[in-house]
C-alpha cells in the first residue's frame, strides 16, 4: 500500500470524511484510512438499539454545501444512529469519497521522516506532507471495567463496539452495567423485548427528556430554508445549536424547564461551570422533575442524583429512560453499597456474595478518554487537544481535530469548524510558498487545560479562537 500523498487522513467518521472532501477539493492528493470495514466512525461502532444523536439532525450535518444539505432529509428531530450512518453513506456517494477511502486498514504508527510523515499500516507504508488524526475521543471503549468478561458463558456486548450482527437478545435475561448516556438510550429500546432487564447503577445520572417529533415534508422544508441562519447559529452559540442561552435568573429555571427541558442543558446555561449557585438551582429543578416522572420513592433513591454538581458530568437526554423502570420486567439495582466484584460464568457477582444470573451482559461503561487511545503510536503526540484543540509543539504538519467540548454541545459543528480551519491554513501555506506549520512551544489555549464542561465560550468560543488565530496570521504557529 505504499504511496506518496499530500495528506493522510486517519478515521472515516464525520470529521475524517469532511477533511477528505475539503482537502481533495483543493486539488491535493489525499487518502483516508480506517481500521473498520465500513465508513462511519463512532456510528459504525455504536449500533446498539436506541442509539441516536442528542443534537438536532439539521444542526449536526455538514452545513457548507446547500445542495448536500437540501438533498438529505431527516426523519425525526434527533435521528437514530443508523440514520446518521445512512447519511454518511449518502455523503460519501454524493461526493465520490469511496475512491480515496482505504477501509479495513488499521494504522499502526506514524513518525516524521525528514520533512514528511511516514504512516505505517498493517498492509504497508505511506508518506505525506500532512497527517490528520481524525479518530476522535470515542475510539477506546472500556471493555473490562470489572474482571471476568471472558468467563461468562453468554454474550458480553459493549455499547461502543456493538457488532453489525449482534446476538439476538429477545426473551433473554439481560444485565446492563452502567447508567451513562448509552445506557439511557439503550434501556428503553430493550424494555419489552428482552425477557428481563436488570440495570446496575452506581452513580445516578441527571437526565433531560427530549421530545423527538417525526419530520415530514413540511418540517424538512422549513429547516432547509433556514440553512444560512442555522450555520450562523451553530458557530455563534456555546451549545453549537440554534438555541441561545436562556439563563435569566435562578428563579426562571423551573419555567424554562417546563417550556422545554432542553433549555436546562448545561451547554445552554451560561456560566454554569463557575457558578455553584446556578448549578445547585438547576440540579434542584431537574431532580424534582425526575422524581415527578418516577413517582416512586424507591426508584428515585436509586435513579435521581442527590448532589448539586449539575453539569460537571455529561447530562443525558432521554426518551423513556425513567419510565422504563415502571415495567414489571425491568429492574434497577444500586451497586454503590453492594459493588460489582467480577463477571462469573453464570452472571455478575456482587460484593455481598450474591450472583445475578444472566443470559447476556451489556457494558454501557463509556470510553477511555485518556491520551492517545486510538492505538496509533505517534512519538511525541499524547492525544491531548493542544492549541485550538488541533496541534501540539514538535509535530509539524500533524493536526488532530478533537472538539474540546466533548459531550457538552454540538461536537460535530465544532469539528467541522476545526477541519475548515485546517483546510484554510494549509491553503495559505501553499499560497505563501511554505511547506508546513507547527504549534509553538508555550502557545496557550484556555480550552487545552479546561475540562469539557468549562471550555470558555463552548463551541462558539473554540471556533472564535480559531478565526482569531487565522486573522492574526497564525501567531501560535511557526510557518516555514
Characteristic terms for this protein:
480 residues, alpha/beta, seven-stranded mixed sheet, five-stranded parallel sheet, 19 strands, 30% helix, globular, monooxygenase, flavoprotein, FAD/NAD-bd_sf, oxidoreductase activity, NAD(P)/FAD-dependent oxidoreductase
Q: What would you call the quaternary organization?
A: single chain
Q: Identify the overall geometry.
A: globular
Query: What about the largest sheet?
Result: 7 strands, mixed
Strand content: 15-25%
Which parts are unreliable, with pLDDT below 50 for 5 consecutive residues or more? none
What is this structure's SSE topology?
Blueprint: E1 3-10, H1 14-25, E2 30-33, H2 42-45, H3 57-60, H4 66-70, H5 81-94, E3 101-102, E4 107-113, E5 116-121, E6 124-133, E7 156-158, E8 173-177, H6 181-190, E9 196-201, E10 207-209, H7 217-225, H8 227-234, H9 253-259, H10 276-294, H11 297-303, E11 316-318, H12 321-324, E12 330-334, E13 340-344, E14 347-350, E15 355-357, E16 360-363, E17 398-399, H13 411-431, E18 437-439, H14 446-449, H15 458-471, E19 477-479
Parallel strand pairs: 1-2, 1-6, 2-3, 6-17, 7-16, 8-9, 8-16, 9-12, 10-11
Antiparallel strand pairs: 4-5, 5-6, 13-14, 14-15, 18-19
Helix pairs in contact: 1-13, 13-15
